[in-house]
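Figure-free illustration: sequence to structure, shown twice.
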Amino acid sequence: MTAAVVTGAGSALPAALDQQAAWEGFFAAHYADVRAAERIFLGAGVSRRHAVANPVDEDLSAWGTGARMARYVQEAMPLGKQAVAGALDAAGLAPGDVGLFAVATCTGYATPGLDIRLASDLGMPAGLQRLLIGHMGCYAAIPGLAAVGDFVAARSRPAVLLCCELTSLHVQPAQRDLEQVVAHALFSDAAAAVVVEPGAGRGRRLAGVVARTDASTADLMTWDVTDLGFRMGLSPRVPGVLSKHVGDVVDELLAGAGLRVEDVAGWAVHPGGPRIIDVVRDELGLAEEQVAASRRVLSEHGNCSSATVLLVLQEMADVDGPVVAMAFGPGLTLYAALLLPV
């Protein structure tokens, strides 16, 4: 079959929000009754992030879900358009060249969705095939990449994947709940896109994807639709569960290409939080410098759900050699992809 090759990437970020300023300007009062809140919030490994709704300027915690969804469409359209246009420009393609447009999001829904609205705005063809990947959470970029890669290999047509997440629209009412403190300390907004082309002579070839779901731990990470937006459930046991599976997933992924851990030039690890990065580093026997790109994205952008691993891959654009991208989310699910230089 024709190789599916990632040839372009683009991203778009809303206004920056300083972590200390967010704490002092909103969350300190929001969690005034939670003794450990400040330590958790300022120890999340995030120095700044990005938000379409800055809580210092506007408090959305009492907004209904309908109002949040309307705001999602309003804010996601320009960000998604910028990310996709940047990816197409990087690949040297026009919107009319695209055969499949896939959109992954777990933070906003509308019908017609972003896939239809953005395709129209960008001038993609009327016969375009579309795919909406909804509510998979932080790991959605990798199954999304697998789906567009399969399309490209089977149809010999280019495809685009957009991950657009606006978690700032889901700030929750104040509760004495440490899981909510952690979620509000970590999550951020971003749009990131990649172009995948058939048989291209440049870029990174999608060489394999491996998934693992531990359904016995499904209650440890949740993303519930409520009348007041979407509410994150995030158990402190998540890193421990990941530690049991990450080694086997990576071994399976690399074995398919005849590679070993020491052959990998770059590790694009979804920075779900500092402990997540620590677990991957320690279980795979990596040096701290090998997870530096993930630490940097967490510090500068926060956890942008499905868009995050694509931001890490952009940080590693100059890495020469095999790259492994990994992301984790509800299920409890691990996904990993192997990208090889062309």
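We now fold a second protein in the same way, so the two outputs can be compared directly.
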Amino acid sequence: MELPRCALVRQNFPRRGLGDVRAAVREAVRSADALNRLPARASVAVGVGSRGIARIDEIVAELATCLKERGLRPFLFPAMGSHGAATARGQAAVLEKLGLTEERAGAPVRSSLAVVPLGRTPEGIDVVGDRLALSADAIVLVARVKWHTDFEGKLESGLFKMMAIGLGKFSGAQVYHAWGHRLGLAAVIRSVGRQVLSTGKIAGGLAILEDAWHEVAHVEFVAAPEMEAREEELLERVKSWMPRLPVDAVDLLLVDEIGKNWSGSGMDPKVINRDIHGNVNPWPFAPRVGRVIARGLHPLSYGNAIGIGMADAVHQRLTRAIKRRPTYVNGLTSGALACLKIPATFRSDREWLEALRRSTGKLNPEELGIAWIRNTQDLTVMAVSERLLPESLAHPRVELLRKVQPLEFDAEGNLREWLRNLAV
């Protein structure tokens, strides 16, 4: 089998990471008047999601410390909809894997799927919220503000989405996603978020922005009255930082790992240019991608392989790592059934390369455009085939790390890991 040679390149995105994340959290909380107005000994429910936010354990621990220094009594609760297999124990386990235990965070963790009604939106959506969180005197949400993988809007992933789908637990997530098919998820998130805010329980939220290196670049406490307008502004800012592949088209895109920690859809559809309903190349701003190959499932996805259906082929190590319940619960709740489908599965990388390379329409190895990334959140270091190398290096931010050389396989026919152990 003839294959193109590949080189390693690095995209030198602007580095916006904060030097002292804990100090940034402390400063954000210090200036939060909404917290100053809470009475001494007030209980504060701190909502945390399941995403792989950089240094989330430090951020939440510092927030808890600051709250306690004000004489408040914080506790953590999972604000993650149907994740963690939609069980209280599973969601607590997700927080534990993120380093969010009572010992490390300095606040107890309380997890329940029980909800209470919070009224009805003008569109007729029945809104619910976590009973434990709403029994507290106030709620503070901790969320990363970023583009949503599946839709476009002025509000996408962030505090409003956490107020809706996260705070709504499994019951709310099912209802809101169903309404999303009628109104669009962006409209549902906004309307439900407004209804939650009307309860007066939300003191505010700690908004986190990350740069293209997956480093914390901004931390800000947003009070409830300003949340809608301010989150729109923060989303516009972070969208301008979004990393992209440095080429216009790729024949074969290799993704080392998918997972809920990387994206709510396992792989970011706006990177691989797929959508959760199976459409190919729907995003005009993303490179056209011929075939997507997923090679593994990250352990922090806890067996949830949502998004596997967006791939055209997968390695059998991925299918062997799947746990059906969390995967099915997530897919059925969101309505993204195409994301549950198992693609063509191969025992080795050599097998799928042999099978798929001609399906791209490129008969000669030197014509084949291959890009190989760790995951869709990390587009810093990647391998590109010789045909894509000149286009990649034409970008002023891209540098060559390793000259072109043949792809290497081990005795089982799997690619030798060029990316996994390479220091960024």
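Summary for the second example: Residues 6-13+242-405 form one domain.
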